[in-house]
């Protein structure tokens, strides 16, 4: 499946034909349904199929202006157009969750690079603020992990606007580490939180999202220094939101009956 997704990604990068791109969207939907058919999470599969195919039809019909840029962002689940992803992730775990947050986004990212709208940088910036504010209202560990992944993906796409090669490298690094981490940390929906998870997603130095954000910030610094300072303040907001995990771990009972 990974080899097939890499082939579809290469195909979408080599051509700018709308019909071929729409075919890639359809094949990615089929792959996701095939991988999740044994989980029996039919509500997630139906939601994903309806959302993706509706957006795919809109992509074919609205082939003018900047509409396709917004449609691709919504198909990937980039903040602030990420409102639909929680209806999918609530019923998928382990490798299927990892696949949804990493490999499922790869062909869409390469298509987005070809039709990018430079003013969309401000939309991504607004999406980061939405993520940080939403983190304050979430109480579910798994939803916090999904939202943290969405926020990190926003950073990667902002880096794409500045430097394509650096961002592709960061995305590959991000995918490899998420493959190792998410499968370990999402086996159960209730009691999988531990100190390793907190240190990884709290933007600690040398953790997963730390390098993604530092390299993205270094690219944005070449373009707009004021925006970089604002983003550093927002990264502090991110640390505050994940302090919820720190508090819970500090008072957590390891006896499941007492949780």
UniProtKB/TrEMBL annotation:
Record's keyword terms, sorted: Membrane, Mitochondrion, Transmembrane, Transmembrane helix
Record field: transmembrane: 18-35, 55-76, 82-101, 108-135, 155-181, 193-214, 226-247
Protein name from the UniProt record: NADH dehydrogenase subunit 2
Gene: ND2
């Amino acid at each position: 499946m990974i080899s097939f997704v890499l082939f579809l990604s290469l195909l979408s990068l080599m051509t700018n034909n709308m019909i071929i791109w729409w075919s890639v969207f359809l094949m990615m939907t089929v792959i996701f349904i095939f991988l999740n058919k044994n989980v029996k999470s039919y509500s997630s599969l139906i939601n994903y199929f309806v959302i993706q195919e509706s957006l795919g039809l809109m992509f074919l019909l609205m082939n003018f202006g900047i509409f396709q840029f917004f449609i691709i962002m919504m198909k990937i689940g980039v903040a602030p157009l990420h409102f639909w992803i929680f209806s999918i992730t609530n019923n998928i775990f382990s490798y299927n969750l990892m696949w949804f947050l990493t490999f499922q986004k790869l062909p869409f990212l390469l298509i987005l690079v070809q039709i990018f709208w430079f003013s969309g940088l401000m939309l991504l910036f607004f999406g980061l603020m939405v993520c940080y504010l939403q983190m304050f209202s979430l109480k579910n560990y798994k939803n916090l992990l999904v939202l943290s992944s969405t926020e990190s993906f926003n950073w990667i796409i902002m880096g794409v606007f500045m430097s394509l090669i650096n961002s592709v490298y960061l995305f590959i690094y991000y995918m490899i580490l998420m493959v190792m981490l998410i499968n370990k940390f999402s086996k159960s929906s209730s009691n999988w939180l531990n100190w390793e998870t907190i240190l990884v997603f709290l933007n600690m130095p040398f953790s997963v999202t730390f390098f993604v954000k530092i390299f993205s910030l270094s690219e944005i610094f070449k373009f707009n220094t004021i925006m970089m300072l604002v983003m550093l303040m927002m990264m502090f907001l991110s640390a505050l939101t994940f302090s919820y995990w720190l508090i819970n771990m500090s008072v957590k009972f390891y006896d499941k009956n007492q949780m």
